[in-house]
Specification:
heterodimer; A: 376 residues; alpha/beta; Rossmann fold; 6-stranded parallel β-sheet; 4-stranded mixed β-sheet; B: 344 residues; 20% strand
């Protein structure tokens, strides 16, 4: 009985390996054949008369973008049998204006990646540690972000789930026993029973967790010569110190309760590094990425493993290997010294537009069965 | 001077980090909303005086943001003006009538387009120049930082760490600068009409072939070797000093310390790039001096935007995590107050 089970299990594994290998081989053949194909792109720029403001659908989150000159360029991504229409733009200093263009993608070769949709202050069990740095750093700002997740990001994901090839979230830390039960990962998919059990265990874990942190320093020792230098040395921007156990909290944080995570959605963990993500995406035939989330996190400068605008999963890595579209109204920045993220988000999206394509939710349209006849 | 500085260094005090909630605080940086979006809302706290020099004659109110405190912390500062420098980062003289001009049809310089450079020129005239005039003669030093190294023309035009030109030399330098800039051809390369893209990764190839900012290929050869003047929108005084980035930060630090400077009021362009990261940027200076970023005396780069105000506000907000921010109207000399009150 046990032997049979073992044999069956091995048989299933062999079959799975054969299927996966065949799929991988086909995907690689298709990809290498596409790589070999080139085309001449006519960089003809036509002035757009009276262009509308960009990213103007959610002004509460991103201040709309207006620039003196907008130009229309020819279609950039032009897949055969395309069924996903993504209008996009970039800024060029040399052109002295914004360049807009149409793109026609195959949805089955497109992934939506949402960076760091943390659960802090989302109405569930995860509260920002006192004087801590959970997500956008204060409870009020996290609540604001949670509303954005609920009203903007979740409907966006729901509208494209089952149409694009993959929806993927990134989280800090690594996969652990609880997360393994909760979410599908590169390693495999959990069962319904696992997910229920994982949710129960996570609830128990957070209930038992007690944040340990240092309070604000009541007094500082300053020289008369350089008090400002020493003030910032002793009273830094974040409460990251040896006595804090906030790291443990971050390593367990789940996806926001404001996202209806589907069992087929995948979670990728920052400690897996970019190479693992790239491999997974390529193995699944992904060529295009619609990127949203906290991709423009200011904290990256200070705590590189907390957020990922840079080296691991953010657009700087992905844009080297995939056709990346930053979905501007799904990406929010941190907003220190501000009651709203809309100005910082706008500033960072504007800066990113010099080297990356920007799109917005209302510019992403799936049209099944229209295929190559897809029109604006 | 060095002895006096050593005495100050040896003194230590306990700073009571007491934060008192400010009721109904006014927006910060609200005097020039065309250039910087005012900073509103949030919890605001008052902290005790931070810099408190003996015989102080300059008041500089300032603030910083702290995630840990959950809000903005404001505090008074009392400085000695003679120990204070006003440094202006990269006031490039581009598209200002002196002759150095953005190359056509696709060249980029400074804020990268002629329109953006002219817009920032307005800020220099309306905000920066009056600010410099208001502090000149009262603070220990007014200085400008410029890219590259000192050229023969610069040497005749501006005072530097090494010396001060005579009136005759300055006139000769101005004549030579005019000739040099006027005789240069500002015609650069045109944009590419077509390029080759793979069908697999057209977006990756597109940005490799057609970069968003190319300050080399579209500017004519020799453009960056021209002597960059200080913008004509600033009335440079013969006593103002020019710092050349090429000399490096250790030289700048040495010069400031030798001149008894302990505090820096930092102004300049562009908030997100030169103002932060160059030789006289705040990342360097804040390691060794008490630095105050004058938030309305800076303008950020503003790609994909008709106005710099949101970008400047975003970058100043970000800088406030680790630096003190002030604004022009918060910098007050006791002598001006006495004058207003008619006190001798």
């Amino acid at each position: 009985m046990n032997d049979n089970r073992l044999r069956n299990k091995h048989g299933f594994q062999e079959m799975w390996v054969i299927i996966t290998s065949t799929f991988l081989a086909l995907a690689l053949v298709s990809s290498s054949s596409l790589r070999a194909q080139t085309r001449s792109y006519e960089n003809v720029l036509k002035l757009i008369k009276k262009p509308k403001p960009l990213l103007a659908d959610f002004p509460q989150w991103v201040e709309p973008i207006t620039e003196a000159k907008h130009f229309e360029a020819p279609v950039l991504v032009n897949d055969e049998d395309a069924d996903l229409f993504v209008r996009a733009w970039r800024y060029s200093f040399n052109v002295r204006g914004i360049i807009e263009m149409s793109n026609r993608l195959r949805a089955k070769e497109t992934a939506i990646i949402l960076v760091h949709p943390w659960a802090f202050n989302d109405g569930g069990d995860w509260d920002t540690p006192l004087a801590g740095i959970g997500h956008i750093c204060t409870p009020q700002s996290n609540q604001l972000i949670a509303t954005h997740t609920k009203k903007v990001i979740n409907p966006f994901l729901t509208s494209l789930r089952g149409k694009v090839a993959l929806i993927l979230y990134t989280l800090p830390g690594s996969e652990n026993a609880i997360r393994k039960k909760l979410y599908r990962s590169f390693a495999g998919q959990s069962s319904d029973a696992d997910r229920i059990e994982g949710a129960r265990e996570l609830k128990a874990w957070i209930k038992a967790f007690s944040i340990r942190d240092e309070p604000l320093a009541k007094s500082l020792k300053l020289s008369a010569d350089k008090p400002v230098v020493e003030y910032f040395g002793q009273f830094p921007m974040l409460s990251s110190n040896d006595k804090s156990n906030a790291r443990e909290l971050l390593d367990m944080v789940p996806v926001s309760a404001n996202i209806d995570v589907a069992p087929t959605d995948v979670v990728s963990y920052d400690r897996q590094r970019y190479a693992a993500l790239k491999k997974h995406l390529q193995a699944n035939g992904i060529r295009h990425v619609l990127l949203g989330g906290a991709v423009l996190c200011e904290l990256q400068r200070y705590t590189p493993d907390l957020c990922n605008a840079g080296p691991f999963f953010g657009y700087e890595s992905l844009a080297q290997d995939f056709n990346v579209f930053l979905v501007g109204d799904t990406a929010l920045t941190t907003f220190p010294a501000s009651e709203t993220p809309r100005f910082t988000s706008r500033a960072h999206i504007s800066a990113a537009s010099v080297d990356h394509l920007i799109t917005q939710i209302s510019w992403i349209r799936y049209e099944a069965a229209t295929g190559a006849k897809l029109t604006e | 001077m060095l002895l006096s500085s050593a005495v100050v260094t040896a003194q230590e005090r306990t700073y009571e980090n007491r934060l008192t909630r400010i009721k109904n605080p006014k927006p910060l940086l609200a005097d020039f909303p065309k250039w910087i979006e005012p900073i509103r809302g949030l919890a605001r706290f008052e902290a005790p005086t931070l810099v408190n020099d003996k015989d102080a004659d300059l008041s500089v109110r300032a603030w910083r943001f702290s995630y840990k405190a959950g809000g903005i912390i404001e505090m008074p500062n009392r400085l000695r003006a003679k120990n204070t420098a006003v440094i202006l980062v990269h006031p490039w003289g581009i598209d200002d009538g002196q002759g150095w001009t953005t190359p056509e049809p696709a060249g980029v310089v400074d804020f990268c387009t002629r329109q953006k450079n002219e817009l920032v020129g307005t800020h220099t005239r309306m905000v920066m120049n009056p600010f410099l005039k208001s502090v000149r003669g009262k603070v220990g030093l007014v200085a400008f930082s410029m890219p590259g190294n000192q050229t023969a023309i610069h040497k005749k035009l501006y005072r530097s760490f090494r010396g001060k030109p005579t009136g005759v030399e300055r006139m000769e330098g101005a004549r030579e600068l005019h000739q040099k800039l006027k005789n240069f051809s500002y015609q650069g390369e045109a944009l590419p009409i077509s390029f080759t893209l793979s069908c697999d990764k057209p977006v990756v190839d597109y940005f490799n072939e057609f970069k968003g900012l190319d300050a080399v290929h579209f500017n004519p050869k020799g453009f960056w070797e021209l002597p960059i003047p200080i913008t004509a929108d600033i009335e440079v005084d013969p006593d103002d000093v020019v710092i050349y980035d090429g000399e490096g930060y250790p030289e700048l630090k040495k010069y400031l310390e030798e001149n008894g400077i302990r505090h820096v009021l930092l102004a300049g362009y562009a908030t997100d790039i030169c103002y932060a990261h160059t030789c006289a940027g705040y990342e360097n200076l804040s390691r060794d001096f008490n630095v105050f970023l004058v938030g309305d005396a800076t303008v950020s780069s503003f790609p994909a935007s008709a106005t710099p105000r949101f970008n400047t506000s975003a970058h100043i907000s970000s800088a406030s995590l680790e630096h003190l921010i002030t604004q022009i109207s918060w910098i007050r000399f006791d002598s001006d107050k006495k004058k207003r009150l008619g006190v001798k």
